[in-house]
Amino acid sequence: MPIFGDVSRFAVEFEIDRDYGGVWMFGRFFYWCGGQRVGNDESTSLRDVLIQLEQMEWATGRRSSARFGEMPAHEMFRLISGSRWGPGDNISDLELA
């Protein structure tokens, strides 16, 4: 599967299904964060993934969080990584504004 970015930092990986469903573009999509692959092998609509990625790009610089605004980067990474890979704070408890 093609990978774009640096898997040791951040990258995306995707593959379109042989029977891709026309405009739905079914396939698999993964993020790579700090050398860890995030996602699963279930087929999904890559069209919908693209829409979400565009929303993420649009929101860059338009989000704020009092909790994260004062938090050192390494602590933020520990919190998010720990919630995904355990042990750590529960990501659902984050107070995002």
Task: Outline the structure in words.
- With 97 residues, this protein is α+β, with helices and mostly antiparallel strands.
- The protein folds into two domains: 1-59, no CATH class; 63-90, no CATH class.
- 32% of the residues lie in helices and 25% in strands.
- It contains three helices and five strands; from the N terminus they run E-E-E-E-E-H-H-H.
- It has helices at residues 46-59, 66-69, 73-85; strands at 3-6, 10-16, 26-33, 36-38, 44-45.
- Strands 1, 2, 3, 4 and 5 form a five-stranded antiparallel sheet that branches.
- Strand 3 and strand 4 (36-38) form a beta hairpin.
- The longest helix is centred in the middle third of the chain and has 14 residues, at 46-59.
- 3% of the residues are buried.
- The mean pLDDT is 82.
Keywords summarizing the entry:
alpha+beta, 2 domains, 5-stranded antiparallel sheet, 97 residues
Secondary structure: elements and pairs:
Layout: E1 3-6, E2 10-16, E3 26-33, E4 36-38, E5 44-45, H1 46-59, H2 66-69, H3 73-85
Antiparallel strand pairs: 1-2, 2-3, 3-4, 3-5
